Amino acid sequence: MDIKFNLIELLDKIDKLDDKYAFIHIICLVLPVIIIFNCVRKIIRKILGFIFRIIFFCFYGNDDDEEQESLLQKKPYEESNYNKSNEKELDITDFSPSLSSSKKNKKKKKKSNSNKSSPKISREYLYSTINENIKDEIEYYNPETPGYPYYPPIKYWKQNFETKGGQPPRHEEWLKMVKSIFVETNKSKGIIVRINFPYSESLNHLETYNKAFINENHERVEPSYVKGILGEWNVYRKAFGIVAQPKIKSIQLEGTPSYFSPVNLNTIIDGVILGSDVISKNDFVFVGHPTETTEEHLKVLKKYGFKRLKIRIYDFAQNVLQAINRPNYNFNNVNELIKMAKDNGFNYIHLECMYNLPKQTIGSLNETLKSIIELEPNQISLKRYEFIDWNGQSRNFSSVAMPEEEDIRPMHLMAIQLLNKSGYTCLGLDEYFKITDNNPLIEAKKKGQLQYSSIGFLVNKNIEKDNSERYKSNKRLILGLGIEAISDIYYAYAMNTRSVRDWLSNVLEKDKLAFSNGQELSQNDELIRGAIWQFLCEGRIKISKLLIRALSFETFSEIKEAINRGILGLDGSQIKKDGVIVLDGDEIWIKDKDVKIENDFGRKSDLLLPGLCQLLDNTQYRKKRRN
Asked: Are residues 45 and 161 in the same domain?
């Protein structure tokens, strides 16, 4: 209190002396205010900083802890080209008294020399191994195009369903078309049944956010879904009528069938086969899960003749698997599943490898592919992942964790180069088959008997020689059962609803199908789809009069540009569209399609065909190319 009164008295004396000392009075008043303000500001900054650090840690975790955890996790593979110059490697010679220090040094020198001899896989290295002309063509005709299992593509179905007002197929009209195709193809080709199992015990962070299918209560989920599958199949059986007994060509269990118990899988397969004639068991496919698939599952499937196992491979790097919430899809678990499947009669292994995943690098993809090749699968597919936004829902990664745009194509090219070096050949659309297996699809391509469909490549020994009609012979009945399953009946597509309640109430209570999406193909759609599929399998197409009407002027201008670039060849008679000359020939093909590109990048057609198929696509469906 004394200090306070003394200060006031001092200020009063200063005021009484003269006005020129008034500024001292002002300084003495302002200075304490400034000091107090700075102190309060620092305290507030520290409090806010502490709060923000807590929030950041809750959302993103501690980087230091992640680094320590990653060091403790052992990868299922070892990098052979990775230079660990900053780390001391443990070697058996360090613990051997029989080796002198000079011998140890010689061994270490040999190791370092071997590391120098193998170049590091990088974007720059991959581009340096490709011819400049090929590189330019790749830049324009995107080899990462996913292809056309459905035409028009799924995302355009509702927008172009003109006759039904933008709605999926009507139940009665759909079943009429089903019966028509059944009568026409059942005897010669049979039926392909695709059963989708959407349920899982954990959320896959790559797919569309939907917690409705995440359920650990199997006793609640499985019985109703089994009834729904058999109820939906019964709707189709009634539509077939008593004309003929259904002939089953293939059963494909897709999604996560291992979520269901072996007993329930047995019930489903038995219900589909009951009253049907199985004409082939070589094409029965089961999608396996590295930890959920048990030997009991495989024994049940073996009983029904399943011999094909398909497994989706993401990346064996643990940080990638953690980001997508699939930690069980590691090398050891996949290897154990393949061994168990082979012991139970599965003789065809198909591994689907994905790239452009969060936290994935060219190096991690390279090591994953090397590990996949060690497993000696019969077929390897390359699939590019496209980022799906979760609109604010909690997720292990964000778009920031995705690979840089400049690294996506090098990832793809590296995979192509490695697979070609390792004894695999491309049939098209990044589908690689082991050369030593003598796969009938490879022979069919040589003989001109290869066809493409919504379920992949097929062999058709009775393919018609008339180019304008040959894809009429690709008619077949592909029925999808279950939530979000897709049916393809040649003239139309239909996708089942994703609402479990709507699906069950329709198939069990109303004896009706429940669709959420679909497309009835126009004549132009059929012609363009057939042309794309033929061009994909053969690398050439004859443009018929009907196809001229279906294709757009833009398509013909782009075909001309490809011809001028020396990529496509042209032959035949001059063709016109609406009285305008659009091409000087009616047959196009890929030049040098069987010529192999140096440095193990495969045939030229394998790289360019996916992008060239887009030339035949109608402009309203065409995807934007990269500049």
From this structure: no
